[in-house]
Amino acid sequence: MKTSLSVWEQKLVSYQQVIASADPDDTPLQADDSQPALTTLSAFLLLRPNNVATQLQHLLAYHPDVHAVQHVTSDAEIMPDNQYTICVCEPAHATRLSMQFTSARLQLVVVGSNNADALKAFECGAAAFIHLPLREQHVMQVVSDISVRLQEHIQRQRIRHLLENMMLKLNIAPDEIASWLRSRLSQRAKKRVSFRSDNAWCSLACEDINWIQAAGDYMCIYTSGENFVVRTTLADLSRKLTDDTFQRVNRSELVNRHFVKMVEQCANRVAYVVLDDGTRLKISRRHFAGFWQYNT
User: Fold this and answer.
1) I need a surface site. Which of 55, 86, 154, 239 has the fewest CB within 10 A?
2) Rg, the chain, Cα only
3) Residues 6+ positions from 156 with CB-CB distance below 8 Å
């Protein structure tokens, strides 16, 4: 299942690391295991047996996020248990089912043929409305969207559980948690790069480097305060830097994207990266087409 959940995952990792750094001798907090991981969905079809029900059953069975599809004739046969479930029904059943199943683990989808049916689905808080006649692409997209929302729900629940445990463990009030996290995150060690320059070893935070220029067998490292000359290759130095911060401009120059003020495109198809301090670096056609053209 493909979802855009990296933000939630990053938050979980960050919070867990922050909590661990607060008291390394203590047992780390555990995420909430009461929320089952969303791997696949079950689907119940509360529809009159007809061509629509048959077609929908076949479509759902082929969706990668659905592992079981069952046609039912009454509410009693819908048993979400501890799994995440989609219930597809007609407008006549929508209100009753929405009142009967209030957990986020059961997502209601209404199938109808007109605006009145769509309004009914909206009023009862259905997760989606499928308009007749059925279109395969639309049905598949509805299930994928629900799958993504459920995964986000799981991540939010885990983060909430983690924060509640953290407040209890560290005796932090709810209105203090945001500032406490910001303080802890800012104190975490910054990634640094070490090198030998002028017969001495230097260590710089990657975020303090403005740009780097290759000059033969040496590298010129430019910062806001001073510059350093290092005997190494641009490829070796690039591997030590933060991957998502530095970007090639041409074969001999590398810039910290946080210091880029603008990308200047001239009439003769020549482009320059302009840094905050006014430095202008010419972008090669290869690197302009590969990155800078789409990130200006």
Assistant:
1) 239
2) 28
3) 8
For residue 74, the model assigns a pLDDT of 87
Query: Residue 124: which of 149, 99, 101 has the closest Cα?
Result: 99
* CATH 2.40.50.1020 segments of the chain: 192-294
Give the per-residue pLDDT at 4.
43
Q: In angstroms, how far is the first alpha carbon of the chain from the final one? A: 32
Tokens for 58, please give them: 């076949």
| Inter-residue contact 292 to 255 (CB < 8 Å) | no
Portions of the chain given CATH number 3.40.50.2300: 6-170
Q: pLDDT under 70 in the chain at which residues? A: 1-39, 80-82, 184-190, 243, 295-296
Distance CA 248, CA 197 (A): 23
Alpha helices in the chain (DSSP H): 6-22, 51-61, 91-100, 115-123, 136-170, 177-187, 234-240, 285-290
Percent of the chain with pLDDT over 70: 82
Q: Is the dihedral of CA 134, 136, 142, 143 positive or negative?
A: positive
Q: Write down the CATH superfamily of domain 192-294.
A: LytTr DNA-binding domain (2.40.50.1020)
Give the pLDDT confidence of 255-268 residue by residue, as tens digits: 998 899 998 888 77
Q: In terms of C-beta density within 10 A (0-12 exposed, 13-18 middle, 19 or more buried), how is residue 30 classed?
A: exposed
Q: Beta strand pairing status for 246-250 and 271-275?
A: unpaired
Compute the CA torsion angle 138, 47, 45, 122 (nearest 10 deg).
Answer: 60
C-alpha 233: how far from chain center: 34
Does an H or E element contain 282, and which?
strand 280-283
> What per-residue confidence (pLDDT) applies to 59?
93
Q: Does the structural domain 6-170 have CATH classification 3.40.50.2300?
A: yes
